[in-house]
Amino acid sequence: MMTTIILPVLTGLALFLFGMKLMETALQHWAGASLQLWLERFTRTPVHGLATGTVLTAVLQSSTAITVIAIGLVGAGVLTFPRTLGVILGANIGTCLTTELIGLSIGHLGVPLLLASSAVWLASWWAGPLPPQAQGTDASRSAHTDGGRGWLRSVRFGSLAVAGFALVLLGIEIMQTIGPALQTRGLFAWFVNQAKVSLLWGVIAGAAVTALVHSSAAVIAMAMGLASIQGIPVELGVAITIGANVGTCVTALIAGIGGTRASQYVAWSHILLNVGGAILFYPFMHQLVQISSMLAGGASEQIARAQTVFNVVSSLLALPFCYLKIWERLEFRN
């Protein structure tokens, strides 16, 4: 069990989480001070915030990062609480890009991508040091003040981001090797059978594991990997995915502790969106699986598509509530 299940899972999960963190850090360093500038400039209305949150999360590959940044900006008084509501909704949509890419079953490209991106990163050091990055409002003029070497920052951090994504793919490939061993274990078979009786087991498992590892993408990727080798049924994979969306709220809750009332509002709105979406979709789990099967072919692709449908529909249903005047009154009392 140690060599066939535990070691591959720990190794694959470590590579996955390291790759996600590397990709997230590289993209944040590339964005730099422009990130705060974009959030301040393009969140005038909830719709603008939704679009901005979607794009930034898709680029930075981390809904948690965008949510935590939004909480910090609200706590610092840079943004008001109503302006961040759309950002929270958009972050949930933007995070679907990760699972959609994983669902393409391109794990075999992990090693070539890692080698190529590493070569580009090493080559970028021969071009010299990075130009200083402009701060605050000067970020928009940095292209005119870096001596025409802004491309070097994009190449260096872009190659690191690609290397991180390659490690994500390698981690998934390693975790998928545990399928045959899991199928021979009575405990795993018992869990799958219990989940067939009630998919609530899958939702709880997804939420609990995500709360522990602080990465919904890692948990969803494991579910997609197991489903692709028929280790678990697609329905269970979708239930785990919805649970993972609930479990990811823990990070936002921690970020809001000790902050201002407005920052706590942001954290709780994130929790309400994900928990409310899970409660809304749970009775229609089988219909969600049927819709995803019509939109995708393989098991892993179906889970990725279900994740996208879940987040997009939940965010769009919640969007009209962002325009309620009550949020302005809450902000006034803060």
TrEMBL record:
Where's it found, cell-wise?
A: Cell membrane
A Pfam family that the UniProt record links to this protein: Na_Pi_cotrans
User: InterPro entries from the xrefs?
Assistant: Na/Pi_transpt (IPR003841)
Q: DNA-binding: present as a keyword of the record?
A: no
Q: How does it sit in the membrane?
A: Multi-pass membrane protein
Q: Does the keyword Secreted apply?
A: no
Q: Where are the transmembrane segments?
A: 59-81, 101-123, 157-178, 199-224, 236-258, 265-284, 304-324
Question: Any idea which UniProt keywords this protein has?
Answer: Cell membrane, Membrane, Transmembrane, Transmembrane helix
Question: Which positions carry the signal peptide feature in this UniProt record?
Answer: none
Q: What is this protein called?
A: Na/Pi cotransporter family protein
Traced from the root, the source organism's taxonomic lineage reads: Bacteria, Bacillati, Bacillota, Bacilli, Bacillales
